[in-house]
Design goal:
About 2% of the residues have low confidence. This protein has 14 helices and 14 strands. The protein has three domains: 153 residues, P-loop containing nucleotide triphosphate hydrolases (Rossmann fold, 3-Layer(aba) Sandwich), CATH 3.40.50.300; 91 residues, Rossmann fold (3-Layer(aba) Sandwich), CATH 3.40.50.11420; 111 residues, Rossmann fold (3-Layer(aba) Sandwich). With 395 residues, the chain is α/β, with parallel strands linked by helices.
Length: 395
Amino acid sequence: MSLNATPSGERIHIGFFGRRNAGKSSLVNAFTGQPLAVVSDVKGTTTDPVSKAMELLPLGPVLIIDTPGFDDEGALGQERVRRTRQVLNRVDIAVLVVDGTVGKTPADEELLAIFRQKNIPFVIAYNKSDLAGEQPSDGIAVSALQKQHIDLLKETVARLVKSDSGRRVCGDLVGAGDFAVLVVPIDKAAPKGRLILPQQQTIRDLLDAGAVPLVCRDTELALTLQKLSAPPKLVITDSQAFGTVKDIVPASVPLTSFSILMARYKGFLRSAVVGAAAIETLENGSRVLIAEGCTHHRQCDDIGTVKLPRMLRRYTQKDIVIETVSGRDFPEDLSPYALIIHCGGCMLNEREVQYRRNFAADCGVPFTNYGTALAYMQGILKRTLGVFPDLQKMV
């Protein structure tokens, strides 16, 4: 993906589901106009979910996901079905591909029940319509082979897309012409030659709001504030620099972090604020899950595997058991954990973040995120929520 491409977490996720040999992969290729998936007459050709980020008219930036057959058999087949179920936790729209010459089967009905249970908008595509006689009353007759009614399927999927929710990272917290100072430490964990995604998204949202973002390192923050003729409207810092930044920024200037803003953007900041208080309940032997939505090369002072565990143990003075996961991995059993600390979720779409949060809530496990937890342990959570008065009252 190029540097200017839409991040996967901001793309509409469209999943194609169905039985083996219903023609899912052939339909995906016809739908995208690209040879995305390998096709064969042999059942079970698709062995793992296959994803492709692309621009798809009239939808715009999307992530297309082709999944293994939901009726796969044997031990390996059940693992493929499990992975397909995982995909269901992050798709925004589902396309159920039914073999039009056979009609819906129990496996198809099970998928439809899951779509409804998870509130996933869906469309049924009856493939192989060139071979089937009857026209379906509850879906669209298509032919991947003959490219029949593919445009109709695209238009139907497009109508299922929710309109823009108006979510902002921080553009609604400033006005046109306001200055916002962004503190970006450059240490061993900082990627060379670029900014991380939450920093990029914050800058763009400030520009869209007509505000003026000023970016500096924590080592130049005091000088930056000194040279401004008036205090900035907002200071946003990397959560790892809270310890330094909180003593430099005057109490009268609103201060928050990229991670806290991302938790709000992904819709789970309120849960994160409530969940952070669970740090006080940790005991010797308590298990804490630290989950990161992306995979990257771990540096020697990595936030998820080094800094957060170190701060948790120092703050609680307890012998805590830390477990970490990254990328698409997320436990299917959360019962062993006393707390989940998640990243901001910039590489995950909103549906997957909400699934993880709701799953934790269903299991009775407190759920917070990096920035909120770090602010809590440094005694400044109330201050960092000053731009969100309703949440500040909860601390």
